[in-house]
């Protein structure tokens, strides 16, 4: 969130982040950004080259935060399985959806390699982080040797991203939790 | 796809379906619909009450098609596991994403209960259909008794929806297949 004490460029970035999360890139007009930021007409072009440049700054910041939030769970204490549980069960604004994942539904973001790059990099980073944890769990005998870290990492991340879709469709966060519970039952260490 | 032989109202519905899939509701203007349909200015209000009414007709038709495509795989031959494999591996335009799931990222669809209803009903129907197949598999001893049909159904559907997100982010359908492979390894009958 932003306050009146922030600089104009900060207010522009933070309003863009909020609007991208709520309405996506296609649904976010420069006018709406300026209004929410309480900034004057010329200010966007004073601080940024235009909407794509401002959006790129906003997306990069959101991507960094998402990665940090994932790392707090995935890099926390516990067994490999417990760390994946912590990631899947971490507090989320489920009905708002993923501020990074939702951008993949935005045709103008997907058509722009520069805007797509932080989206792809962030999701790839999380998937690979989970993949490494699965490999740790295999080495410790917690997970079956036939599991492929990369595949399980992708399935875990897909369940999160798809869980948002189910929850938003249902208008209830419970649908997210149900999908996560299903995946965790399947992933549960066989010796438990 | 539509042809010049179609009636104006059909052309309006089919163009709206395409545009909703490509650009979402927020990104689809009445002007763009009319242009793609090759229809005159007043024709939308002649055949429909407005954009929401036309979109509802379009979404309902897309929902019916999606349900039928899911049923072709889920109601096909084979064991419960094989039918879930058939559903997950069925031919998809992965990089286009799910024409129903993507609507959940659309704030104007989510804010309108009438537009959201066919989205929720379709996803719930597919989830419940998979849940029933998981219960069949449990009864046949193919799946472990601790699996909950509803949870596994949600996890399977979430993997599909999230798989689209990962594939679009990466700009490659392979990311979808990787997530699906991970889930299928986890779900594979233990006696296999």
Write up what this structure looks like:
Chains A, B: GO terms for molecular function: DNA binding. Chains A, B: Residues 29-48 bind DNA. With 192 residues, chain A is an all-alpha fold. Chain A has helices spanning 8-23, 30-37, 43-47, 51-74, 80-89, 107-110, 113-139, 149-170, 174-187. Chain A has one domain (8-187): Tetracycline Repressor, domain 2. Chain A has nine helices and no strands. The mean pLDDT of chain A is 95. Chains A and B meet through helix 7, helix 8 and helix 9 of A and helix 7, helix 8 and helix 9 of B.
Per-chain topology:
Two copies of one chain form a homodimer.
Chain A: H1 8-23, H2 30-37, H3 43-47, H4 51-74, H5 80-89, H6 107-110, H7 113-139, H8 149-170, H9 174-187
Helix pairs in contact in A: 1-2, 1-4, 4-5, 4-7, 5-7, 5-9, 7-8, 8-9
């Amino acid at each position: 969130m932003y306050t009146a004490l922030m600089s104009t460029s900060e207010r522009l970035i933070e309003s863009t982040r909020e609007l991208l999360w709520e309405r996506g890139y296609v649904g976010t007009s420069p006018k709406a950004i300026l209004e929410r930021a309480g900034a004057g007409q010329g200010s966007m072009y004073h601080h940024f080259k235009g909407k794509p440049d401002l959006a790129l700054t906003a997306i990069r910041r959101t991507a960094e935060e998402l990665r940090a939030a994932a790392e707090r769970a995935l890099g926390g204490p516990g067994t490999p399985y417990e760390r994946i549980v912590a990631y899947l069960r971490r507090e989320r604004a489920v009905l708002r959806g993923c501020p990074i994942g939702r951008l993949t539904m935005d045709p103008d973001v997907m058509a722009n390699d520069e805007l797509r790059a932080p989206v792809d990099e962030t999701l790839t980073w999380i998937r690979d982080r989970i993949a490494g944890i699965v490999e740790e769990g295999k080495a410790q005998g917690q997970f079956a040797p036939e599991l492929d870290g990369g595949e399980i990492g992708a399935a875990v991340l897909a369940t999160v991203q798809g869980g948002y879709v189910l929850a938003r469709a249902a208008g209830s966060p419970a649908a997210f939790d149900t999908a996560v519970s299903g995946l965790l039952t399947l992933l549960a260490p066989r010796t438990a």
